[in-house]
Amino acid sequence: MRATRSVREMMDKQMVMEWAKMLMSYKFALDEISTKLTILNEELQFVQHYNPIEHVKTRIKSPESIVEKLQRKGVEVSKENAAAHIRDIAGVRVICSFTTDVYRVYEMILRQGDVKVIEVKDYIKDPKPNGYQSLHMIIEIPVFLSDRIEHVKVEIQLRTIAMDFWASLEHKIYYQFHDDMPDSIRDQLKETADMIGALDKRMLGLKEEVQRFSEDALH
Ligand code: GTP
Ligand code: MG
């Protein structure tokens, strides 16, 4: 009895170690992407006195959420299945001031030789029915470990400050109601999302107008 329990305890510990090791690779992948984004932002700041990125947030999905997502997908809980079925264990959110910056950063990520793009979903061009806007990418990046190279998937979400403002409130509201959201709340969220879209366009127009002023001043 005691021996059985200690074997189980050992196995749990071994599993915990294996999962921790797996999550470490995702952390390294996030470090790599963060460094790439910092380099791009600082180079543009230096060369063009302009930084397209406002800020970057990274997060690793907790083991509890990974297990819950695997169960929701109806697949057996294992680290192999986590790597195969969950593409957002590592997540990066890039917040920009303007939509033009979002696409600029997106293009720069596409041009990185060691980044393999798995999927792109443009919810800015085609917002979700609830109004959600963001540019999503699933990419794969090589992580060079002491004895092997791992190809790690990372979900990148690129959006404007205004889109991020909307998404964070919508997320909180959705968490409260799930699929029973009252129609009036749902309608207001859609309406405010449209306002966010219009606001982003006007802010960009304003910025471009100011730019023309300073260009004219140079001539
Ligand atoms: P999962 O939902 O993560 O299983 O992936 P998916 O294949 O449906 O991908 P999608 O690109 O639609 O969404 C991925 C992530 O984007 C989500 O985990 C959220 O972080 C974010 N997201 C997608 N839709 C919404 C939305 O309607 N509101 C908010 N606030 N965030 C969203
Ligand atoms: Mg989803």
From TrEMBL:
This protein's pathway: Purine metabolism; ppGpp biosynthesis; ppGpp from GTP: step 1/2
Residues annotated as domain RelA/SpoT: 58-181
Protein name: GTP pyrophosphokinase family protein
Shown segment, full-protein numbering: 1 to 219 of 264
